[in-house]
Amino acid sequence: MSTSSPRENPRHRRRKDRSGREEVQQSQPIERQLPIYEILKKDQLELIHGKSLEILGEVGIDFYLEEARQILKEHGARIEGQTAFFTPQLIEKYRKRAPSQFTQLARNPRRNVTIGGDSVVFAPVYGPPFVYDRKHGRRDATLEDFQNFVKLAYLSPYIHHSGGTIVEPTDRPTETRHLDMLYSHIKYSDKPFMGAVMAREHAQDSVRMVEILFGKEAIRKDPALLSLINISSPRRLDDRMLEALTVYARNRQAVIITPFIMAGAMSPVSLAGTLIQQNAEALAGLVYAQMVQPGTPVVYGSFMTNVDLKSGAPVFGSPESQLALLASSQMAQYYDLPFRSGGMFASAKTSDAQSAYESVMTMLPAVLGRVNFVLHAAGWLENGLTAGYEKFLLDCEILGAFHTLESGIDFSEGSLAMESLKEVEPGGHHLGTQHTMERFNSAFYRSRLFDYTDIDTWVEGGSQTAEEAASHKVWELLENYQAPELDQDLDQTLVEYIRDRKEQIVTGE
Known about the structure:
By secondary structure, the chain is α/β, with parallel strands linked by helices. It has a domain at 101-406: Alpha-Beta Barrel (TIM Barrel). The chain is 42% helix and 14% strand. The chain has 17 helices and 19 strands. The strands form 4 sheets. Strands 1, 7, 10, 12, 13, 14, 15, 16 and 17 form a 9-stranded mixed beta sheet that branches. A 4-stranded mixed beta sheet has the order 3-4-2-11. Helix 12 (389-406) crosses helix 16. The longest helix has 22 residues, at 271-292.
């Protein structure tokens, strides 16, 4: 009999926290073992780069903030009105100052994540104003919904990051809801999270709160925030995004520079033209961040789909968007930068077959390509307008499968199974061998929600669909949720800061 012990899977360990409670099951970010799927040749990469420099030098990028234009001018960009122009030498000088990877801090140090290299980090959906579940239907998102999704992300073994604006809590004032969202990430999870970006003050509050949580020196060494800076394509950065970007860069917090493109409307219908525009926009944001603070961690982002040219509606899961994702990944690698893209995108309104097909169409290229940070990895419905409770859990089941896929094939001594291969007679089976029994619980990925029984057993059990199973599981998880431990003094300091800031915002002081 084999004496080799099964390889311990670190993604499925359980630990106890300082109070002796068992911590929530947690997967580590994927360390990609599969080769990267590449579709562009070297000369095509260089063509996109060269044409992007042509755009940056001849037609420029608009910066809708005087402070930003002044910084650009001081560092050598040519400014005409609101438009900034960049020479190839200027782009080359500043793009090299961004790190190729970095660590983002989490409240629980064991949840720190590496962004870049071979690491793959999954984060929840971002931004929907509506939510949907089978019990209550589609409705405006509230702070309670926001907190529920933070809890579900915390409880999932396949979500590594708490995300940002998972949903918009429309029952809270626009001016102060960012404080409630940031506190919810801190209170109800101990995973890393994203900063607020809708105003300069929101970014400043985000920085101040992580300074309270981690200390000023710690977050300058390794960022505690990773924030989404969208470029309003074509070729412009608006004042709010620039204000937030400037605050985060000055405080050396990580940013994702992401052109927001729907090809056919906000970029050419051709993929090559869209890639050139996207790359020029991303380089402009990257270079500006390095001018503000050299060494600012920057993630090269891509959010590209196409519109239906007959209706004008966005199309998610299209083959064109997946080709663009793979090509964009190569551009990020060309510049030695971390890459953000992908997500469980769907135009579908519920967790039906359409949503499943569309979501996997988007996620598979993300997994096969070189996506380091996958935003919208769970919960996305209705072109991003809605976050689905059942969709969130079902997406997480697929993320678990992708963990196994990206891990590749184990060729350790025990996995060769030579004793078992020699032990079983021709026509026999391996179900009872020591090798199988040692690995019974960890040999294959098994979804908690998908049904693997025979048809008769399934019918006898009520013929439950995957969405129905997810609906039951959502409320079971939330009912049994326990918050991770948070230092009482830190908690009190954060509560007082939020109280004081809300008073200042309301009174205008």
